[in-house]
Amino acid sequence: MSFKPANNIQDLQYFGEFGGVNPSVSDSSTYTFLSAKTMFDTFEGNADGCYLYSRHSSPSNLYLGEALAAMENTEAAHVTSSGMAAITSVLLQLCQAEDHIISSRTIYGGTYAFLKNFLPRFKISTNFVDITNLAAVEAAITNNTKVIFCETVSNPLLEVADIKKLSILAKKHKLTLVVDNTFSPLSISPKVLGADIVIHSLTKFINGSSDTVGGVICGTHKFINALRDVNTGATMLLGPTMDSLRASSILKNLRTLHIRMQQHSKNALNLAKKFENLGLKTVYPGLKSHPSHQLFKSMMNESYGFGGMLTINVGSLDKANQLMELMQHKNLGYLAVSLGFYKTLFSAPGTSTSSEIPLDEQKAMGLSDGLIRFSIGLDADIERTFKMMFDCMLELHILKPSIV
Ligand SMILES: *Cc1c(COP(=O)(O)O)cnc(C)c1O
């Protein structure tokens, strides 16, 4: 794979009003016109380069969108106020009453709840399938199916979707393949592999500083323009607009994403190997034992690694909670949801980010009580981190002293 997403971002140049090295921030909600005719044309979508109102678009949001489109190799992108705003706008744009969606069953809890509890109000139904089972995906297709939805690397079980094969299936049945790539920015480029629309929660790795929520929709000019249509566009009419000041701050953080992803991945692979060697049940796509290790390798862009997310199973929720509290006490990370921060974050998904999923369904998808999800941080000294985590596990009898 020769796609180089970080180069694409780096090659874009934006200057500020006075030759600043960063683009000026457009701190305005509305824009003046020299002539009434231009205002009318802008409403009609015929005045390129003119701004009307910031819910439609704004210069700062367009800079960030352009950089993210370059990263995902799509024609265009639209930034939104959150990842959920991106997901819900896309699905409401693509589907209408009586339509049907096929979704991976291991997805972000909020997305699951939206598909399962909210969309049925509009008579849009969803089948949840094991996305790694292509025969099951194809068998679920009906005459009303419009969308296949999945995460490249799923939350929290870290299952890997075969984007190429899913896209062949989608094309064969004239469906839109929508991929949430939040867990694997730079590492995997779903559009290059055949996805139609790529979504990110910018809240996570891309912004990387846990100071805001944000989202992006990457797709064709046609689709992005449809979202912004003043009469029928989901982002225009639902209004999940990112603020210009925030767009400018996320763009600056995007500049270091490639370095951060390399460090997240390096640290996560190091810890995953050591945890597995200790006999802990460890899931990380970079481990040979991961069922989709070869698939991930075949899809990945060189040099960004297998990402910063890993899970271990310590047997019970009780043990998981004790371990997380002790690790936080020793300043090894924070007991917090979310991901992509400089500090390691850990949570028990069954009782937090996936708690929207009923217990019996959690069991069916292999989401067990003792699971801890780690977003591995940018630690400068991962050997020290490992030693300290190891000591915590000994203290709580998660590991037996005999293996020392
Ligand atoms: C966090 C997350 C979302 C939701 O994004 P928000 O920015 O919190 O709205 C969607 N998908 C995945 C995979 C996530 O991790």
- Write out the distinct hetero groups bound to the structure: pyridoxal-5'-phosphate
> How much helix, percentage-wise, in residues?
25-40%
- Number of helical stretches of at least 4 residues: 15
H/E series? HHHEHEHEHEHEEEHHHHEHEHEEHEH
State the domain count.
2
Q: What structural class should be given to the helix and strand makeup?
A: alpha/beta
Spatial order of strands in the largest sheet: 1-7-6-5-4-2-3
Return residue spans where pLDDT drops below 50 for at least 5 consecutive residues. none
Known CATH architecture of the largest domain: 3-Layer(aba) Sandwich
What is the number of beta strands? 12
How would you characterize this protein structure?
- This protein has helices spanning 5-10, 36-43, 59-72, 83-94, 109-118, 134-139, 163-172, 221-227, 234-238, 244-254, 257-277, 293-299, 317-329, 359-364, 382-395; strands spanning 76-80, 100-104, 125-129, 145-151, 176-180, 197-201, 215-219, 281-283, 309-313, 334-335, 345-347, 371-375.
- Helix 3 (59-72) runs parallel beside helix 10 (244-254).
- The chain is built from 15 helices and twelve strands.
- The protein is α/β, with parallel strands linked by helices and 404 residues long.
- The model has no long low-confidence stretch (mean pLDDT 94).
- It folds into two domains: 5-254, 3-Layer(aba) Sandwich (Aspartate Aminotransferase, domain 2); 258-403, Aspartate Aminotransferase, domain 1 (Alpha-Beta Complex), CATH 3.90.1150.10.
- Helices cover 37% and strands 14% of the residues.
- Helix 7 links the parallel strand 4 (145-151) and strand 5.
- A seven-stranded mixed sheet has the order 1-7-6-5-4-2-3, sandwiched between helices.
- GO terms for molecular function: carbon-sulfur lyase activity; pyridoxal phosphate binding; transaminase activity.
- Belongs to the trans-sulfuration enzymes family.
- InterPro entries: Cys/Met-Metab_PyrdxlP-dep_enz, PyrdxlP-dep_Trfase, PyrdxlP-dep_Trfase_major, PyrdxlP-dep_Trfase_small.
- It comes from Aestuariibaculum sediminum.
- This is Aminotransferase class I/II-fold pyridoxal phosphate-dependent enzyme.
